[in-house]
Amino acid sequence: MPHDLWSAEYYQQKVYERIRRAKPDDFLPYDEQRGRYIAEKINPMLQLYRQSDHEWFKDWSRRKGEMIHASDLILRLQKLNSHISVQNQVNFPDDWGIYTSAMGRIQFLTGFPKGWLTEFSYAMVDDRDLPTEERRGWRTVLIYCLMKGALTWEQIMKEFGEPSDSWNEMRWQEVTMDVRHGGDEVFQRNIANLLEL
Prior knowledge:
There is one protein chain. This protein is of the alpha+beta class. It has 8 helices and 7 strands; from the N terminus they run H-H-H-H-E-H-E-E-E-E-E-E-H-H-H. A 3-stranded antiparallel β-sheet has the order 2-3-4, with helices on one face. Strands 1-5 form a two-stranded antiparallel ribbon. Strand 6 and strand 7 (131-135) form a beta hairpin. The longest helix has 18 residues, at 30-47.
């Protein structure tokens, strides 16, 4: 009588037969097998959630650059554009929010931590080395203000200049490449340039 290839009994017989014929060398100790499984299966999957420069991006000492206090950044931003206002964020009480008014509506530009700010953003990671939170640096704040039309490239260069830290300059160059070299990307501008001085 032929075996039913779809039955649970047939599958169990195959498993038992494999176990019966297995040699002790075919099975690794649990810890060794677990380590191998993590290295071969889990780590490649986790790598999908990391950026290409993850090792640099999570390194606070590398990303700190020229630190400035949040109050100094606020003062300099409002000096460049008097339409910018800063408020405490309700959902993130440890962060400031930059806002402006355009056509009678409040527009959120970006947020950043209170206290001292690193020059470049960096990532907080968990025990699996996955990013859990971005701690925004002041140059990232400038990029958001530029993209939303609250600041011009000329204002940013005059007030803040180029980064002096060549270790971290690559991200800055990549993000500003279009506006720096007149590429095709058009940054989001508010209607009638209401955010400009």
